[in-house]
């Protein structure tokens, strides 16, 4: 269900990351190579990017498939960014929220995407949703599982949690309420990328020549530098380093308190 990608590094055209590579997110919308659930990601797409000197990202989202949008092809060719987050969508359930249901979701400097599905949606998360302030529920951008997961993450961020703790604790809370869920979350603030693996694939690439770090559902080319992230892991990346921390099953100590088990320095 969905494919997504985030990048931090030297500025380059959006298309250099999303369209030009042989197995780019653009191609993954109809021919993903590592997708475990679903086959076509044609229920919408979106990209958010950070312009130099502006901490608040811009977004371009549509309800249809990315390959059918000629305006995006032009935009991706000329717009440059040093950080972005993009996704192509395979909807968990058909809905009427159009582009509002397409990632990335945004608030302030943050961009967010969810690759996966909440088991037993929507009833499974009714008790979890009830703990959110009413105004946050009424402000949901869409009526899908990803929008609610984003609301849970955002509530923690606004309460002062760092990005890693906000993602990790949201994953554990949702997994406890809906054990069949797949919860690969992706978050960027324009400087770092934070992600989780929980039931689906995630890879990363540190680029010694071109510079920067890419975190993606699957590799966009056959570069041998791509590294697969183990399932149930919290990833934190900058443009030079990647840190991996195991996520625990619900009921075990919070993973954000654990010591990171792997650091991938620039080589």
Automatic annotation (TrEMBL):
The keyword Hydrolase applies. Pathway: Amino-acid biosynthesis; ergothioneine biosynthesis. It comes from the Bacteria. It catalyses: gamma-L-glutamyl-hercynylcysteine S-oxide + H2O = S-(hercyn-2-yl)-L-cysteine S-oxide + L-glutamate. Its EC number is 3.5.1.118. Catalyzes the hydrolysis of the gamma-glutamyl amide bond of hercynyl-gamma-L-glutamyl-L-cysteine sulfoxide to produce hercynylcysteine sulfoxide, a step in the biosynthesis pathway of ergothioneine. This is Gamma-glutamyl-hercynylcysteine sulfoxide hydrolase.
């Amino acid at each position: 269900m969905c494919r997504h990608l985030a990048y931090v590094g030297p500025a380059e055209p959006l298309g250099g990351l999303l369209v030009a590579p042989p197995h780019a997110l653009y191609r993954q919308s109809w021919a993903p190579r590592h997708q475990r659930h679903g086959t076509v990601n044609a229920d919408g797409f979106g990209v958010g990017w950070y312009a130099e000197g502006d901490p608040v990202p811009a977004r371009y989202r549509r309800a249809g498939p990315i390959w059918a949008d000629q305006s995006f092809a032009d935009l991706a060719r000329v717009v440059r960014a040093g950080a972005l987050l993009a996704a192509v969508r395979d909807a968990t359930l058909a809905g009427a929220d159009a582009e509002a249901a397409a990632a990335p979701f945004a608030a302030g400097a943050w961009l967010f995407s969810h690759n996966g599905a909440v088991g037993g949606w929507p009833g499974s998360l009714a008790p979890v949703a009830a703990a959110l302030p009413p105004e946050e529920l009424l402000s949901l951008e869409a009526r899908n599982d990803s929008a609610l997961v984003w609301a849970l993450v955002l509530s923690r961020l606004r309460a002062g949690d760092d990005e890693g703790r906000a993602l990790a604790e949201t994953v554990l809370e949702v997994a406890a309420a809906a054990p069949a869920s797949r919860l690969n979350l992706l978050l960027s603030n324009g400087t770092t990328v934070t992600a989780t693996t929980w039931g689906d694939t995630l890879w990363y690439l540190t680029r010694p020549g071109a510079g920067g770090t890419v975190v993606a559902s699957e590799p966009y080319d056959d570069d041998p530098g791509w590294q697969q992230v183990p399932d149930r892991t919290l990833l934190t990346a900058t443009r030079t380093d990647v840190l991996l921390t195991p996520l625990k099953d619900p009921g075990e100590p919070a993973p954000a308190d654990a010591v990171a088990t792997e650091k991938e320095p620039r080589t």
